[in-house]
Amino acid sequence: MASEADALGMVEAREADLTLRALTIAAHTIKSEGWFNLKIAGELPGYGNRLRIGLVGRQPEMLSRLDDAIDTLKEEEVDAIVNRHVSIEAPMRINYRLTVQVAAGLLALLVVAYLWIRHLRALNRRLAELSARLHEDIEARERVEEALKESEEHYRLLVEMAQEGIVVVQNRRLAYCNPAFCQLVGYSPAELAGMDAFTALILAEDLGRAETNHARRLSGVDAEQRYPLRLLHKSGRLLWAETSGVPIVWHGEPATLNIVNDITARKAAEEKVQHLAEHDVLTGLPNRALLLDRLERALAAARREGGLVALLFIDLDGFKPVNDRHGHDVGDALLQGVAARLREGLREADTAARVGGDEFVVLLPGVASVEAAQQVAAKLRASIDRPFMIGQRRLAISASIGIALSPRDGDHPAELMRSADKAMYEAKRGRGRG
Questions:
Q1: 165-266: what CATH class?
Q2: Is 334 helix (H, G, I), strand (E, B) or coil?
Q3: DSSP class of residue 198?
């Protein structure tokens, strides 16, 4: 047909059965009717052809001849006819604007893809770094935990093997005790668990000091360090201990960690040294230094309270001949006997001291009167006048006693000693005073 409109007109006038337009539709129709063995798929926009086929229904002979003719065609001939008569005109128009837009879009897509790839690479590097750090942190934590475990084990061994007693006190009770402390006080760990840390183990006289220091440590206030306490052994025996402590947190609650050292032997040695420094080695009586210290205390108390202090100066008569005749061993034994009789004749508050070879001084603090001091002097003189049995020997000596009274004869130790010594010599000369 000359035009599409003519072909449509023939179909409308029923002069033709159908009209085919566009290459794809024509090819599809030809193939579905079995006219040609064509393999055509899709439609190309912008392409056109001038093939128009119109068949008149009133001419069946032509249709039959056309079909017979098509059936005799070989596949190669069909392809040649189609390629010759079904021509496609594809106008080549380049849309530069669209091309630029597409190119720009592709470029933008490439840039975005590049940036996204860089971002992903950066993320991967960051993740790798974080993974490495996490791995290092895990290894470090494992090392720290292992070191802590080893450290805890070492500290536990140190505490368990320590020679000093180690005690944790919490809420006034024993929360932990190491074996050394158990051995020190004679209790088993089960017996000490939960025991009152103060009243059950500390001597009543030292209890206030221990409780005060414990409370000060818990409150963060400075407390005594390394101070002595007297502890009670399970057997009732008295122990000397030197203790020190620090505040700690034990199982989430405040407590004190205390180190307890047994100083019983040291205390005994110190007391022995102190005793030797203040007492006469032969008789065990206080020496001059301890006598003067006690005399000064007694005079101070008398000044405060208004009482009297008496001092008796005793010199043994006949001691030198006994010592020369029988020897120093007998003389020493005689001095020890005199010391024993002096102790027997005095109150617990009184002091008998040896201040020279055969010289003794008796301190009577808080004496009621001069007469009371004279009565004590007479009692001691009569005691010394009784014979002494030293081994198989019966020895007899006597004593001259001088009495000085404060404040009448002096208000200071040296002054009172001089007065008593002077009164003794007067008594020795004629048994006058005293």
A1: alpha beta
A2: helix
A3: S
